[in-house]
């Protein structure tokens, strides 16, 4: 009989700056207790960066828009998808030392085993990133 996969965790948060903190706590708390010492800090930082980027660059502040998160385990990783209603494509940049922003995807790139940007079927964009169950191995 095949192993039945876990149901992915799913959240929706308003496109508001305080949502990054709430999303970070929700995602970290959803990890199994045994994995929190290994993944908690990294997945919290990954969540904060992706949600902050989605709010800043993918949502229209004049509308009541939401940021969606999905977290699921597969293939030895926890995968996090952060989706926003925007149509832009996040790109990795290398800001100079004096820049005050622009380093979010550099953090994502250094933390995640793999990450990508995908258009959503109806409207918006998703950034998907994976962290291995055990860091460094």
UniProtKB/TrEMBL annotation:
InterPro entries reported for this sequence: Anti-sigma-factor_SerPK, HATPase_C_sf, HATPase_dom
Q: Which domain of life is it from?
A: Bacteria
**SUPFAM superfamilies, sorted:** ATPase domain of HSP90 chaperone/DNA topoisomerase II/histidine kinase
- Keyword vocabulary terms for this entry: ATP-binding, Kinase, Nucleotide-binding, Serine/threonine-protein kinase, Transferase
One annotated GO molecular function is: protein serine/threonine kinase activity
Name the Pfam families for this protein: HATPase_c_2
Question: Which segments constitute the Histidine kinase/HSP90-like ATPase domain?
Answer: 13-127
**Which PANTHER family does its entry note?**
ANTI-SIGMA-F FACTOR RSBW, ANTI-SIGMA-F FACTOR RSBW-RELATED
Q: What is this protein called?
A: ATP-binding protein
